[in-house]
Amino acid sequence: MTSLTPRILIGEDQQDVQDALHLLLKGAGYAADAASTPDAILTKLDAGKYDLLLMDLNYRRDTTSGSEGLEILGMLRNLPTPPPVIVMTAWGSIELAVQAMHMGARDFIQKPWDNNHLLHLAEKHIGAHRAEQLRKFKLDYELEEAVAVQRRLMPTGLPKLPGIDLAGHCQPAGAIAGDYFDVLQLGDKLGLCIADVIGKGLPAALMMSNLQAAVKVTAADWVQPSELCLRVNKLACRNGAVDKFISFFYALYHPETRKLTYANAGHNPPIVVRKNGEAALLESPDIVLGQVPDWQYHDAELALHSGDRVVFYTDGITEAGGDSGEEFGPDRLRDLIQQQPNLRATELLASVMANVSEHCHNSFSDDATCLILSLD
């Protein structure tokens, strides 16, 4: 927590100047500390928090160039939260002042200084620094809250039913994801869904949380996928921005008949790999959610059999890039599934995520989500 009394570090090699500045700042209500060398300045900044660095540009090495002070300004960029810097020099050089400002200094004071002007600048930059720190603290807190909410919305476990094997994982590219997957137990059926908001960060996560809530309150064993897509699309059109939309896939699976009824709202077509190795895509001409409020979505049906596997995924899987920029791609994903016919859903999911991660050197540029349904 930030101290109520602002702390100022004085970077100055002349003891009499240190004393004068310390007396001035203490009289104005600041807590002042001092360092006489560049190394000492960096050590103190690394060890404690300061609201301002009041720093001479010239030290014992020379008295004119300001090179030591400029080196310190360069090193401050490596600190996670460097304080604002006011630089001081005993000689008037516009070029040096401009160079210091380009390297991150907030202001420039020439020695001998005007006390009132120095205190005015200190108050100005400490106030701005503390306001920025408070803003960052609030943003970090809000992000932490958003992450916690999103984690609660993501499934903590998937239904366990005889003859069915399920596994899913979402790999966020950042702190918070714009991807979503879920498996809902709806009477004697399963509702399987996966989605991807086009966009990143908190706005995408907010839009996704609205979708998650809409799916949970709309889904039922009698609600066909096309009807669910229609309803959540109307909500997405009302709540979403014009530049935000959602690719979405929703399916109802009936374990007794092994039929999969689905609607695809512009999402990457899931891959079905049969026991004999044949593959098919669950495609549809329907469009993404959030663009056309009266769009009529369509149902399609597929009969599944023992040994079949359905792999749902977002484009963070297939668009993950390697060294050459080559994407992982849907063909590589299909081949990987076909080459491992005996893996359980959990094992296949681990293999998919490991292969994608290896391909992109664990540098995901987008959220990557995969959900697998396997029939015994």
Can you give a write-up of this model?
With 376 residues, the protein is an alpha/beta fold. The protein folds into two domains: 7-144, 3-Layer(aba) Sandwich (Rossmann fold); 155-375, PPM-type phosphatase domain (Phosphatase 2c, domain 1), CATH 3.60.40.10. Helices cover 38% and strands 23% of the residues. It is built from ten helices and 15 strands. The chain has helices spanning 15-27, 38-47, 67-76, 94-102, 115-153, 201-218, 225-239, 315-318, 330-338, 345-359, and strands at residues 7-11, 31-35, 52-56, 85-89, 107-110, 164-171, 179-186, 189-197, 246-254, 259-265, 271-273, 279-281, 300-303, 309-313, 368-375. The strands form three sheets. The protein has a five-stranded parallel sheet, with helices on both faces. Strands 6-15-14-11-12 form a five-stranded antiparallel sheet. Strands 7-8-9-10-13 form a five-stranded antiparallel sheet. Helix 4 (94-102) links the parallel strand 4 (85-89) and strand 5. Helix 6 (201-218) crosses helix 7. The longest helix has 39 residues, at 115-153. The relative contact order is 0.09. The mean pLDDT is 87.
